[in-house]
Amino acid sequence: MIEILNPTEVARAKDTGALVATILRTLRSRSTVGTNLLDIDQWAKAMILEAGASSCYVDYAPSFGRGPFGHYICTAVNDAVLHGRPHDYALADGDLLTLDLAVSLDGVAADSAISFIVGDTRPPESVALIDATERALAAGIAAAGPGARIGDISHAIGSVLGAAGYQINTEFGGHGIGSTMHQDPHVSNTGRPGRGYKLRPGLLLALEPWVMADTAELVTDADGWTLRSATGCRTAHSEHTIAITGDGADILTLPR
Ligand code: MF3
Ligand code: CO
Questions:
Q1: Quick one: which residues bind substrate (predicted)?
Q2: What is the CATH superfamily name and number for domain 7-251?
């Protein structure tokens, strides 16, 4: 089902989006050499509950994972890219960390992910991966607006990722969002312009380009959740929740 939110609901979605962005910003600043992924998860939990929000993850048990996720944030390090399950691991200098967070506040969900390098080193391959997903996300947002189609967004994202030299995996992509985290329409990270659902004001989309350095193939970790690159190469993922407006799209997952 595709949900169209009324202006009151979109205003609530902005509150949820600002909360997600503020939590991610705080967690990024605390993610330094030696920080344990389980501490990041507990900090996320505390900030979600403190804000009176609820986690979209902790009880989530979709077909693509094994049982309830059981955690409050996805933490994906280096070759891990999607659905990274927090575990007992202390971050090292040069690690590429993705934090992916979705929460619900007053009945409306928002979803965002950031990738960044821990510590002081700047491995060029990691910088390029992050840069490509951020530019693809910006291109996807720029292609979104009333009257545009899902295929226009997919094409914009895929063009940037492809031009940066990456293969694109089509098993996981963006999605509609609203009263729940994962809704129709699916937003592939590659596609043909002019195809698919026509965007309308009040539609919320989570756009999430992600790439792996030298493959498009994923493998599932022994934890039953974490998705890693099949070759062990590094990966990156960037995500915002946006709202289609009367004349374009608003990014909801920005700090206020
Ligand atoms: N937030 C992820 C997405 O971008 C979904 C994570 S599902 C989880 O769609 F259960 F792993 F947390
Ligand atoms: Co998402």
A1: 83, 182
A2: Creatinase/methionine aminopeptidase superfamily (3.90.230.10)
